[in-house]
Write a structure and sequence with these properties.
FAD/NAD(P)-binding domain; D-Amino Acid Oxidase, Chain A, domain 2; Helicase, Ruva Protein, domain 3; 3 domains; ten-stranded mixed β-sheet; 20 strands; 34% helix; 22% strand; globular
Length: 535
């Protein structure tokens, strides 16, 4: 088992100084989401010299907007994609073991309102258990009507016949991304948020590095690197287009978009709509989609949708029909139907679905949920697709391809299988349920460090102290109010109005710590986006 890294300050001036003075890297990564951070950690753990740049904040895009589930993919089993399910189940266990403070088992119940549903879905979930084998988090159980209502006290009782209980995982996605970044940094990787890759440069027709810009100052930098990995999620095609334009010999195929974005919408309501710490899962709604009602950090997430989107907005908005779908379907399965006025926050994530050659992207349900690794004629490595649960396996695949193409030296893999993430603590460390409201539990064994900072006893709101804001600035790369209230504390995703009310206080603390503009007004405007439901 790897020795846990020690936390250290992440002053931006020091990071930028390293970027300006270090002359050459083995690996440069574009994109600070789950995939890019996973590659950075794996590469750093193998001893490579690594740099990663992210145009916004770490996990600002898709990687902070998941349904918060660490899962093997029950619906992929229904599609017959056994290999994807096996991989995801294996990686689910690895993730839960390496970050127990951020990822834990969660029980799900499928309420049955038709006589055939319990045996039909029960057989599938028993197969799910069998595929998991020793990685199973608990056996699938057939429930009586009374047992179902005991676990889902707010479920619609009318017509309820039985239920099925099964197990998957749940996690805090944005904080897991930060744990990946900090663990990689502890192993020597240089990671910089708010640093945009603007172009590639070449030597003898091969990619030799990146040009990037510190978006806080406008200063440009040149990063020499033996290998460049494009891990920008739904935005990978932007860099691929630049690479193709610089290497026209590749032809049209090299720059044809490979991503068909699909958006998933999530509505957050108070925990009273669900009750308890058991999630509700409907495998097939009226239009064939899946519906979840998931307890998370003291609230309930309702979702999600799977809708084609033809733009790549950084803050995508929900479509009216998506909101209607979630509310209408929730009303069919919950005793008390949530309404628009009950929604505390609405957020949308864009999934980077990989499309086949010539696919127009209008049927995202049929596109691949698996990841793809491509290497261009110039040597640019692009990875996209996949899901949070398999981020570690994706990283291993990327480094395998890099070695096969002689872009990196071949070094033994598997180094992250038992690599505890920062905050994970010793084996057997007690952690609170991630279903409970935010608090110190998400810091794992760093709780004492957090409470040693000024303002530990000064609560800004339940679950967020002044010391936590200082910790975010000193150790977690936080620069702006949004960084703290959206991704370090998750308040924007839980209750946008409460988050907005804290902007000035959080901004003042951040300015004390960093001396940088915390963008208070920008964040206050952003909160309106998380409160707007198209009527």
């Amino acid at each position: 088992m790897s020795t846990l890294p020690q936390p250290r300050f992440t002053h931006r001036a020091e990071l930028i100084s390293r970027l300006a003075n270090d002359d050459h890297y083995d690996l440069a990564i574009v994109g600070g989401g789950a995939t890019g951070l996973g590659v950075a950690l794996d590469a750093a753990a193998r001893g490579f010299k690594v740099v990663l740049v992210e145009s916004h904040d770490f996990a600002k895009g898709t990687s902070s907007r998941a349904t918060k589930l660490v899962h093997g993919g029950v619906r992929y089993l229904a599609q017959g994609n056994i290999s994807l399910v096996r991989e995801a189940l294996r990686e689910r266990t690895t993730l839960l073991d390496n970050a127990p403070h951020l990822a834990q088992p969660l029980a799900f119940v499928l309420p049955s309102y038709q006589w055939w549903e319990a045996p039909f879905y029960g057989i599938g979930l028993k197969m799910y258990d069998a595929l998991a084998g020793k990685a199973s988090l608990g056996p699938t159980e057939f429930l009586s009507r009374a047992e179902t209502l005991a676990l889902l006290p707010t479920a619609q009782p009318q017509g309820l016949k039985a239920g099925i209980k099964y197990w998957d995982g749940q996690f805090n996605d944005a904080r897991l991304a930060l744990a990946l970044a900090r663990t990689a940094a502890a192993r020597g990787a240089l990671l910089i948020n708010y640093c945009r890759a603007t172009d590639l440069f070449y030597e003898s027709g091969k990619v030799a590095g990146l040009l990037c810009e510190d978006t806080l100052t406008g200063q440009s930098y040149r990063i020499q690197s033996r290998c460049v990995v494009n891990a920008a999620g739904v935005w990978v095609d932007e860099l691929r287009q630049k690479d193709g334009a610089a290497n026209p010999g590749d032809g049209r195929r090299a720059v044809e978009p490979m991503v068909a974005p699909s958006q998933g919408v999530h509505l957050v309501v108070d925990r009273e709509f669900l009750g308890g710490e058991t999630a509700l899962m409907v495998p097939k709604t009226a239009d064939g989609r899946v519906l979840f009602a998931v307890p998370w950090l003291g609230k309930v997430i309702l979702g999600t949708t799977d809708t084609p989107r033809h733009d790549l907005a950084r803050e995508p908005s929900p479509f009216k029909e998506e909101v209607d779908f979630i509310l209408t379907e929730s009303a069919r399965y919950l005793r008390r139907a949530p309404t628009r006025s009950d929604v505390k926050s609405v957020w949308v994530g864009l999934r980077p679905l990989v499309k086949a050659q010539g696919e127009d992207g209008d049927n995202t349900k049929g596109l691949s949920r698996e990841h793809t690794v491509l290497v261009s004629r110039s040597g640019l490595v692009t990875v996209t697709g996949g899901k949070w649960t398999t981020y570690r396996a994706m990283a291993e695949d990327v480094l395998t391809v890099c070695a096969q193409r002689a872009l990196l030296a071949s070094r033994k893999g598997g180094v992250t299988v038992h690599l505890k993430l920062i905050g994970a603590g010793a084996a057997g460390m007690a952690v609170s349920s991630i279903c409970k409201p935010p608090g110190l539990h998400s810091y794992g064994d760093e709780q004492a460090l957090v409470t040693s900072l000024p303002g530990a006893d000064l609560l800004l709101t339940s679950g967020l102290s002044e010391a936590m804001v200082r910790f975010a600035a000193r150790y977690e790369y936080a620069v702006r109010v949004e960084d703290v209230l959206a991704r370090r504390s998750r308040l924007l995703f839980l209750d946008a109005r409460v988050a907005r009310s804290l902007a000035d206080q959080v901004g003042a603390i951040l300015f004390q710590e960093t001396g940088l503009d915390p963008q208070v007004e920008v964040f206050s405007e952003l909160t309106q986006h998380y409160l707007h439901l198209p009527a």
